[in-house]
Amino acid sequence: MRYGQIRKYDVANGPGIRSTIFVTGCTHNCKNCFNKEYQDFDYGDVWTSKETKEVIDYLKLNEVNGLTVLGGEPFQNEKDLYKIIKEIQKEISKDIWIFSGYTFDQIIEDENKKKLLELCDVLVDGPFIEDLKNLKLKFRGSSNQRIIDIKKSFKENQVIELDI
């Protein structure tokens, strides 16, 4: 897996101060994507155990509320991300947000994608749609995108959105 950047501190991609991983590689090709260069699967650096340790160190900081994973498309890097997040969770119990151009329903249809989803707490789902762009929305770019409580959604067997 390759990544475009790791942010120690990020206040734009989830509540509070978060550390973020931007993976590369995405085939959705949303019109006016804000991370166009991250669509290339060959862009960025190769992820190693060094990066996993770096993220763990960031997440150990008291001021960091949790981890956010976005890209690119995390669910087109699901096998590697699954292993990375499992390693992180051995040492950290903070919440994990994950962004995807896939919808919740699309993700749970694929067993590998669903396994990654089950490790996370919040999903921001759906493709960015230029015609539905809304700059007033928190943590998403277009009004079709939802902020989903993953654990409650699995428990109640229906999509449960967070009121943010």
Descriptive overview:
The chain is an alpha/beta fold and about 160 residues long. The protein has one domain (about 1-5, about 15-130, about 145-155): Aldolase class I (TIM Barrel), CATH 3.20.20. Helix content is about 25%, strand content about 20%. The protein has five helices and seven strands; from the N terminus they run E-E-E-H-E-H-E-H-H-E-E-H. It has helices at about 50-60, 80-90, 105-110, 110-120, 150-155; strands at about 1-10, 20-25, 45, 65-70, 95-100, 120-125, 145-150. Strands 3-1-2-4-5-6-7 form a seven-stranded mixed sheet. A hairpin with a 7-residue loop joins strand 1 and strand 2. Helix 2 runs parallel beside helix 4 (about 110-120). It is globular, with a radius of gyration of 15 Å. The model has no long low-confidence stretch (mean pLDDT about 95).
Domain module count = 1
Using only CA atoms, what is the Rg?
Answer: 15 Å
* Overall spatial form: globular
Q: Specify the biggest β-sheet.
A: 7 strands, mixed
Q: Strand order, main sheet: write it out.
A: 3-1-2-4-5-6-7
* CATH level 3 topology: TIM Barrel
Mean pLDDT: 95
SSE string: EEEHEHEHHEEH
- The strand count comes to 7
Estimate the helix proportion, in percent: 25-40%
CATH architecture: Alpha-Beta Barrel
CATH superfamily: Aldolase class I
Unreliable stretches: none
Structural class: alpha/beta
> Approximately how much beta-strand content do the residues carry?
15-25%
Termini separation comes to 31 Å
Oligomeric state of the chains present here: single chain
Number of helices in the DSSP assignment: 5
What is the name of the CATH class? Alpha Beta
